[in-house]
Amino acid sequence: MTVPYSKRMQGYGSDFIKEMFAAARNPDLISFAGGAPAPELYPLDAFRAASDKAFEEWGRTVMAYDGAEGIMPLREIIANERMPQMGVNVGPEDIRILSGSQQGIDFAARLFIDEGDTIICEYPTYLGALNSFGAFKPSYVSVPMDNQGMLMEELEKTLIANPQAKLLYTVPEFQNPTGITLAADRRKRMVELAEEHDILIIEDSPYYEIRFEGENIPAIKSFDTTGDRVIYLGSFSKTLCPGIRLGWACANFEILDRYRVMKEASDFQASTVTQYQVATFLRDNPLDELLNESRRVYRGRRDAALAAIEEFFPDNVEYTIPQGGYFIWLTVPGVNATEMFLPAVNDIGVAYVPGESFFAAADQSCNFRLSYSQMTEEKIREGISRLAKLLSSA
Amino acid sequence: MTVPYSKRMQGYGSDFIKEMFAAARNPDLISFAGGAPAPELYPLDAFRAASDKAFEEWGRTVMAYDGAEGIMPLREIIANERMPQMGVNVGPEDIRILSGSQQGIDFAARLFIDEGDTIICEYPTYLGALNSFGAFKPSYVSVPMDNQGMLMEELEKTLIANPQAKLLYTVPEFQNPTGITLAADRRKRMVELAEEHDILIIEDSPYYEIRFEGENIPAIKSFDTTGDRVIYLGSFSKTLCPGIRLGWACANFEILDRYRVMKEASDFQASTVTQYQVATFLRDNPLDELLNESRRVYRGRRDAALAAIEEFFPDNVEYTIPQGGYFIWLTVPGVNATEMFLPAVNDIGVAYVPGESFFAAADQSCNFRLSYSQMTEEKIREGISRLAKLLSSA
After folding, report:
1. What are the chain B neighbours of A138 within 8 Å (beta carbons)?
2. A253 close to B (CB below 8 A)
3. In which residue ranges of chain A is CATH 3.90.1150.10 found?
4. In this predicted model, what pLDDT tens digit does every residue of B328-378 receive, in sequence order?
5. What is the pLDDT of residues B79-138, one digit of tens each?
6. Pairing between strand A118-123 and A139-146?
7. Where in chain B is the domain with CATH 3.40.640.10?
8. Which of A2, A6, A196 best probes binding to B when mutated, by most B CB atoms within 10 angstroms?
9. A63: nearest CA partner in chain B
10. What does the pLDDT read at residue A86?
């Protein structure tokens, strides 16, 4: 039979995420591909204890429907303990629980994007966002970055040239894929420009609390004095573990109410069980202690990666120096990172993500996203050494 | 600011689900509104034990990403133990885990529906499906039912009159909202007609295993000999508990692969934690024992509801007699169930869902969906007696 897909779906969908998941499951591979936390950092015993306690304390409530907004105890913890870390002072009524922050991107696409609508994003930008947006057939306009993030003069030009643009999508901290962080003055300016040009900002901020160097920079949302301009998306995938699939949106009430409607239409609500487990864990355990340990480990891994790049790669190679998160963005002039992917995986047992995946309009190929989050310092050194050898022989 | 919603979203979204959730939380209300299982039937202790065991046995795996397909142990249990109950013999490769079967409806809408595309459904049909489909602006064509479900002669006429129709959406067992079950010969005929007229069937089957009277009727999917025609959607929300948000799709590989792409774009995957908890629970506990207890309880409640309707309502009232599931469909000539909703909740403390919510094209108002699943037999009798009094005074 001919499957009658919607126009929206024709030619849509990359297999790359599937391949990355598959590669990540091969235990012998040195994988710089996945953007996930190190499993050895999951607080297994404490989360197991909290999970059990959730059943003891809340009983059948944890197994029932609760509602699309998310359970109140978890929204309270996010409003009272997590958002102030980002410089954002809100109440639980300003928070909606999502099945990961990815769902917040997907809902933004569903809520705001008609075919052909313009989305402004960084250049390069997050693959998963392109994946969510792509289903709704937008056009993209990319804004270049330097090592302080998106260039505000370029953003202003872009807004003037694209007065009908609807959304500005940004990953302001330790950006996926580049590791770059948007400077504080640019955040303020970004909100001003969004006000002037009447555009919504999607602030996708899953790595915010994985800063291992430098001072916290307030969220873009903290500069949103009207409260109407920024949809902030947070996540527990990096701070606690990704298998729980819990994130949140913080925005104005009207938009959050539309998020609720979307949540009801798409899956009713996030797992009540998992929400109570996480709320109990966060109440009984100081997340900051866990985060400090994570930061120590990731800093060590970043340092190992940077040292190995310095040692094994030639001088014409460029790379970013992230102050947090998981990603280094490597630029190797004259090399095609996409063509090199299969030889790297099959011949030298090293995986990464080719830069091409992150471009809203693909036109560059000499970039590698290297994630240091899941490999030991020894494996990082070994993997980068192998990669350098493969590149020099290419 | 003017929020720049997509055209898709304008005028979209009913607050009714939110209101029902809110009404369901009032413990004094006699609620026939919610379509959820009785909390006292949740296997709290066994599920708590299985949850803990999942951490013990699988360790950090339960907290990690696994992949959009769903964890293999759960897909195996569904393929080997649940689907054969429905007369469907498949392997785990034919199953994809979803965040509830609602997500399976939503993905079907996303995958197949362009604005204006025709969806064929029962008359009346499930509110939540209308909610998912609605975002993609289809047109609906409804097919009337008798007490054996959708009329196949009417379906054939409808298919001939609407050659461009893309999807046929049906809830074949103990339908939400009517409680009606589609007869076996009509299931076979429905697949034949779908083949002849080249249309996909979405078989939404969350109540299948809540049959408390009569013999199981094989799923529509069991008549789908090519395997290409039917997307079967199953759920653990009614058999185990709804707060886990786990369901599944069973379809041909090409469609399942698109479901995977949708899953990655919308929320990556269902909670790994919950999937392992449920897989461990289902391995260690005979679901059929739990189901037998549920069936006993729901049969008692249905009987109480039918007896009370007979006792308190006048003779001109019509009602369905479900052989399973949660719903009785009450027709009270001359009464407007929508207008009566607020007086019923506020003045007599009784909630139901007005029939209007379930019509793809709203034009009837004298129907009440009464769910007997969550009230004791005493409360059912009391609630129906109050409702009859209110109606007679109206």
Report:
1. none
2. no
3. 7-42+289-393
4. 999 999 999 988 988 999 899 999 999 988 887 656 689 999 999 999 999
5. 999 999 999 999 999 999 999 999 999 999 999 999 999 999 999 999 899 989 988 899
6. parallel
7. 45-284
8. A6
9. B243
10. 97
pLDDT at position A392 over 70: yes
ipTM of the shown complex: 0.93
Instruction: Name which of B34, B128, B270 is nearest A245 (Cβ-Cβ).
Output: B270
CB contact under 8 A, A243 and B271: yes
Class of domain B45-284: alpha beta
* Tally of CB atoms within 10 A around B98: 29
Residue whose C-alpha is closest to residue A28's, from A343, A346, A327, A387? A346
Torsion of CA A176, A177, A182, A187, to 10 degrees: -50
Instruction: Report the half-sphere exposure of A295 (CA within 13 A, side-chain side).
Output: 16
Strand, coil or helix: A2: coil
The span from the CA of A280 to the CA of B26, in Å, is 24
Looking up tokens 């939380």, which residue turns up? B25
Residues of B in contact with A99 (CB under 8 A): 99, 267, 271
Which pLDDT does position A359 carry in this prediction?
83
Cα three-residue angle A6-A9-A11, rounded to 5 degrees? 130
Which numeric CATH code is attached to B7-42+289-393?
3.90.1150.10
Q: What's the rounded Cα separation, in Å, for the pair A56 and A63?
A: 12
pTM: 0.94
